[in-house]
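Hey, does this match?
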Amino acid sequence: MRARLFVIGCTGSVGSSVLSVCRAYPDRFEVRAVAARSSAEKIEQIADEFKSSAVVLTDASAATNLADRAGDRFSVLSGISAMEETAARSDIDHVVVASSGTEAVHALLRALRE
């Protein structure tokens, strides 16, 4: 069974390294959801590549712009609370926090509680 991941900070250097491991071992990892601050174009490419079901952008404007393009490929959520809710989803086995920002702290705490 593949580990189902939510990768927070997927557009940064550490997040990109996590995704490289997922690419190398597709039989072990499934990237169910991804999050970033505002890199809508980059996260869109990532979500399409990994067939992620959800994208979270903490920047509301970037999320709105991406939602207009996403159609039914994946859901687009916005804000820190959306990141926290995604971390608690029952179809997520592991949350990878690859972000240096404080926005991910609440999601990390929620994942630890769940």
